[in-house]
Design goal:
The complex is a heterodimer.
Chain A (H helix, E strand, L loop, with lengths): L1 H9 L2 H8 L2 E5 L8 E2 L5 E2 L1 H14 L5 E5 L5 H6 L5 E2 L7 H6 L2 E3 L4 E3 L1 E6 L14 E5 L4 H11 L5 E5 L2 H9 L5 E5 H8 L8 E3 L7 E3 L2 E3 L3 H19 L7 H7 L3 H6 L6 H4 L6 H9 L2 H9 L28
Parallel strand pairs in A: 1-4, 1-5, 9-10, 9-11
Antiparallel strand pairs in A: 2-3, 6-14, 7-13, 8-11, 8-12
Chain B lengths: L1 H40 L30 H34 L4 H15 L3 H15 L14 E3 L2 E4 L1 E4 L3 H29 L5 H19 L4 E4 L2 E3 L2 E3 L2 E3 L1 H27 L3 H9 L4 H31 L11 H12 L2 H30 L5
Antiparallel strand pairs in B: 1-2, 2-7, 3-4, 5-6
Helix pairs in contact in B: 2-3, 2-7, 2-10, 3-7, 4-7, 5-6, 7-9, 8-9, 9-11, 10-11
Classes of the chains: A alpha/beta, B mainly alpha.
């Protein structure tokens, strides 16, 4: 039995995915903007598009994905046990997860932070004024720890009420059981859109934690980890170079920029670095567009969420997104 | 000779059983070993070492004093206490409700028996999780905001953050009140025994029940009046968002308890009804013919026989109640599963926590089973 388990692990994820013809992707149970089924039951969102880019690069088909919705508690075990090939599900990159939980993070795709949402009528302007308030929290995340740390640091007392699901936690907050609701700011924005009266809720300015969200794979399969990492870098680099879903084929045919020519596989052999053909990035961009296009589709001004790029802007624009050079 | 022959005839059976047990044990060992090896190979942390690490978990509702700087182990222990607390209260109230409704089900009063039937059929046939969501939203939406608290009694405040009651604080003189209570208890026990003995011998007892009640209230009461400083109260006061001080019954706890009691009570009521209906009508007629009052017919003839039918089924309902309390996490009560879930979220050592959950539920339910089976053996009819 032991021998069987070990051989199963040694087989590379890339071969496995190519053999199955489908990428098994762990996603959330439904967070608008990140990953949720649309009215036709098709999974859409920021995290989903990252998965589609990988599927397009590896399998030449962005639809060749088997979606596995994961509860917060399962998300790490699902990938470390091999149930899913890749998890793209609003997960914070932490030291313990990276070192001791059997997963490897690829690249940060979203710089988030935990914040508080309160009703406007409460008249609170800062999280530090929340002393004595009761706060709704979702279980199975790092948010409980962050709230407790924040309260201890600022010598205020917060009553936390921990719920299993976001929906119940949000209901308790809307019903007035809790004064505030806390989770990552992007998700606060997402939940606010589902409230009956979005304009009556405000998100307080303080961010009480760093939450770099990154897709991750099973620990130890470096070939697969490299592949996913560079697909993500490719999407960010594409935005920097102005390569879009619409112009990618034209850029490939006529661009004279040596960097773009290398990225799109016209020159060089970037495909061999990750055991794919030279067109992998072209396919990924054709499928979902560059990072900026993905972001705008999920969170842009045209959406209900309308989350400003902020720290998720390119480094050239004062943000934190900085792709490693593709060469 | 016979014993050797017995063993010989049983030998194949014994061998087969030994082999089956051996195979099961081997499989368990291989599974354990394989898990360990795989965890190690993937460099995944295992073991219970993390339990002594500072957890940083916030828990709002604990029975003992708790601070978020406590260790994971202590936080988990708080969760176990909450599970036990809600289970014990749930079992007590569900039993009371179940017996009342069970009796009402067989009542000759049309309205009473119909109301009981409707209650049982509704609660028994709705998933508990929905009942909990329902009770929680009813509790929340029916209660006012803290600033508009409902004040049923002086210094008692009810709002959607909970019921705030004065918290009793005991001082040194309390020892005398406790001793008076103990004395009254011993005296009452003696009185009741004495009265029972007299009734058995002479057919006439005295009102031991009322006398003990008077003793148990009177004696500690007088002692307290003599030493009024023994007990003071900490009252809740409105500060900023919410009340501070006092004792709090939180809406999550109340909703969970109400949901569990309503749900399990319906099942226990059915056990009680089946127990009552298992007593042959002839016995009740006979008791009536002897001139026993309805109350005596119930307490001396029907209920003692009811117990032996309904206890085995009720053990199941008690253990279900304990297991069902794990749904607490859905409505925000920090039971063992909720706290454990938070620990998994921070640590990602799911296997250890799930193992602990199973061990704790198993222990609680085995203790309940043992106790109830012992009680069951006591009330079974002794064949003479």
């Amino acid at each position: 039995m032991l021998a069987v388990a070990t051989t199963a692990m040694a087989a590379g994820m890339l071969e496995k995915v190519q053999k199955n013809g489908s990428l098994i992707l762990g996603v959330s149970e439904g967070v608008t903007g990140f990953s949720a089924p649309d009215s036709q039951g098709r999974w859409v969102g920021f995290d989903v598009d990252m998965g589609r880019a990988v599927a397009a690069a590896v399998l030449k088909n962005p639809e060749a994905i088997t979606f596995v919705p994961l509860a917060s508690k399962q998300k790490i075990v699902a990938v470390s046990s091999g149930q899913v090939d890749l998890v793209s599900r609003t997960t914070t990159w932490t030291m313990k997860r990276d070192c001791k939980q059997g997963v490897d993070f690829t690249a940060v795709v979203f710089y988030d932070g935990q914040g508080f949402m309160v009703k406007k009528s409460l008249g609170v302007k800062s999280a530090k004024e929340l002393a004595g308030a009761s706060v709704a929290v979702v279980s199975g995340t790092t948010s409980e720890l962050n709230v407790a740390d924040f309260a201890r640091l600022n010598h205020i007392k917060l009553e936390t009420v921990v719920f299993d699901s976001k929906k119940e936690a949000f209901n308790a907050y809307s019903a007035g059981r809790c004064d505030a609701f806390t989770t990552d700011v992007s998700q606060l924005a997402s939940l606010r859109t589902s409230a009956a009266d979005p304009q009556n809720h405000i998100i307080l300015p303080e961010l009480i934690s760093k939450e770099p969200l990154a897709p991750y794979v099973r620990h130890g399969d470096n070939q697969w980890k490299d592949l996913v990492t560079w697909v993500l870098y490719g999407l960010i680099e594409a935005e920097e170079k102005g390569i879009t879903q619409a112009n990618v084929l034209q850029m490939k045919a006529s661009s004279t920029d040596p960097v773009v020519r290398r990225m799109l596989g016209v020159s060089g052999d970037i495909g061999s670095f990750i055991n794919l053909d030279n067109d992998w990035l072209v396919r990924a961009i054709q499928a979902v567009g560059n990072y900026g296009e993905i972001y705008n589709r999920a969170f842009g001004p045209a959406t209900m969420l309308d989350i400003p790029r902020g720290r998720n802007a390119l480094w050239l624009d004062g943000g934190l997104l900085y792709a490693m050079p593709i060469r | 000779m016979s014993s050797i022959a017995d063993i010989k005839s049983q030998l194949p059976m014994l061998l087969a059983q030994t082999v089956v047990i051996g195979v099961i044990l081997y499989c368990v060992l291989v599974l354990f070993h394989n898990t360990q090896a795989n965890l190690h190979a993937r460099n995944i942390a295992s073991g219970f070492g993390f339990m002594s690490v500072e957890g940083g978990l916030p828990i709002n509702d604990t029975l003992a004093s708790y601070d978020s700087s406590a260790s994971y182990g202590y936080a988990f222990f708080m969760g176990i206490l909450n599970t036990l607390f809600v289970s014990i209260l749930g079992i007590i109230f569900a039993t009371i409700l179940g017996v009342l409704v069970g009796c009402a089900r067989v009542s000759s009063n049309w309205l009473v028996s119909r109301v009981a039937t409707v209650y049982v059929e509704i609660l028994r046939n709705i998933p508990l999780l929905l009942t909990l969501f329902f009770t929680y939203s009813v509790v929340l939406s029916s209660l006012p905001q803290p600033r508009e608290s409902f004040v049923p009694l002086t210094n008692v405040f009810v709002n959607n953050r909970g019921a705030f009651l004065p918290r009793p604080e005991f001082h040194a003189d309390m020892i005398w009140v406790c001793m008076a209570m103990l004395g009254a208890g011993i005296l009452s026990w003696y009185l009741v025994r004495r009265s029972r003995k007299m009734r058995d011998e002479t057919g006439r007892g005295f009102y031991a029940g009322w006398m003990s009640l008077a003793l148990c209230i009177g004696l500690p009461g007088i002692t307290y009046l003599l030493a009024p400083a023994s007990l003071t109260f900490d009252y809740a006061e409105l500060h900023g968002f919410n009340f501070k001080g006092g004792m709090i019954l939180r809406p999550e706890f109340c909703a969970l308890l109400i949901g569990l009691v309503l749900y399990t009570g319906a099942f226990i009521a059915e056990n009680v009804r089946s127990g009552i209906q298992s007593v042959p009508v002839g016995q009740i007629d006979a008791a009536r013919a002897l001139g026993l009052k309805p109350r005596l017919v119930m307490s001396k003839v029907v209920l003692p026989q009811t117990l032996r039918v309904c206890i085995p089924a009720t053990i199941n309902d008690y253990t279900s109640l304990v297991k069902n309390s794990s749904l607490a996490v859905a409505i925000g009560y920090p039971d063992m599963v909720s706290v454990g879930g938070t620990i998994i979220g921070q640590n990602d050592q799911a296997i250890e926590i799930i193992g602990l959950w199973m061990a704790v539920y198993l222990t609680i339910n085995l203790v309940i089973s043992l106790g109830m089976n012992w009680f069951n053996a006591k009330v079974q009819m002794v064949e003479r």
